[in-house]
Amino acid sequence: MTTTINASPSNGIVQTADGSGVMSVYWLRCAEHTDMFSQGYVGITRHGREKRRFWEHKTVGQNAHLRNALNKYKVVQEILLIADKDYCKEIEQKLRPETNIGWNIVAGGGLPPSFKGKKRSAEFVAKARLRKDSDETRLKKSIASVGNKRGVGRKLTNEQKQNVSAWMKGKQNSLGKQNGLKYQYVGTNIKTGETITLVGGKPVLDAGFHMGHVSSCACGTAKSHKGYTWKKEPINGKHN
Fold first, then answer.
1. Does 4 share its domain with 84?
2. Are the C-beta atoms of residues 94 and 109 closer than 8 Å to each other?
3. Domain coverage including residue 206
4. 90 and 8, same structural domain?
5. Residue 135 lies in a domain
6. Which helix (H) or strand (E) holds 33?
7. Can you tell me the distance from the alpha carbon of 74 to that of 32, in angstroms, rounded to the nearest whole number?
8. Most Cβ neighbours (<10 Å): which of 21, 58, 77, 99?
9. Do residue 108 and residue 186 come from a single domain?
10. Total-model pTM
11. Is 158 left (phi over 0), alpha (psi -120 to 50) or beta?
12. Beta bridge partners of 45
């Protein structure tokens, strides 16, 4: 639910060609909150970016108090004002004149942090360069990885092969190779009760269904897909 209050373009809004001059003051609150001066969170952002800012607060925001509240409670975002940047900063400062009011941990009147155009100090750059591998280290890593990427090119001894074979016997992910196992997917139309049987993954796709969704239904993690319930049956083999 989003409510816009006093959003007339005649409120002194100075808008640039890309709309960057228009800001909004928003209030994040629980449904039972009624006092914007002491409850919830008040912030400002570029107008049109409110939903993105809400996501940032909930996932990557530095305000842990606010982030925890957004993930714990059902929170609504209410747009209080749309105006130019300076006026929005003034209103936010009046609503949050001090630190630690509601879910805010800093006083209002500032802008969200941005790293755009930020210059790193010479000390930071020097430390970052030291963290990089030297040419000698990169050469050693390159030689060590030749023929051994993710086990490719690695040769197993006969004893290791026997141990792997013994461990794989009876495992669910190896049944197809052991028994020539192939699956058929049986879909039942929820409305008519009509059934359709598709053997293998390609026929499922050719029939206009999504293989992943059909598989999810067959595994029990989803209820239906395109009006059908699904189950998976092995053919040309049997489960051990």
1. yes
2. no
3. 180-235
4. yes
5. no
6. none
7. 10
8. 77
9. no
10. 0.44
11. alpha
12. 24
pLDDT tens for each residue of 26-53: 999 999 999 999 999 999 999 999 999 9
191 in the same domain as 107? no
Count the alpha carbons within 13 Å of 114 in the hemisphere toward its beta carbon.
Answer: 8
Residue 86 in tokens: 């300076």
Domain assignment present for residue 139? The answer is no
> 10-19, 22-31, 73-82, 177-186 — which is least confidently predicted?
10-19
CA distances from 220 to 98, 197, 215, 225, 240 (A): 52, 18, 9, 12, 21
Domain count, the chain: 2
- 155 three-state secondary structure: coil
Q: Is residue 137 part of a domain?
A: no
Where a domain ends, among 58, 92, 112? 112
User: Buried b / exposed e across 47-70, counting CB within 10 Å, b at 16+?
Assistant: beebeebbeebbeebebeebbebb
pLDDT tens sequence across 63-84: 899 999 999 999 999 999 999 9
Residue 144 lies in a domain: no
Looking at the fold, whether 107 and 204 belong to one and the same domain comes out as: no
**7 touches 47 (CB < 8 A):** no
Helix, strand, or coil (residue 60): coil
Place of tokens 């060590």: 144
DSSP calls for 57-99? HHHT-S-HHHHHHHHHS-EEEEEEEEEEHHHHHHHHHHH--SS
Q: Identify the domain boundary among 63, 86, 112.
A: 112
**CB atoms near residue 35 (< 10 Å):** 9
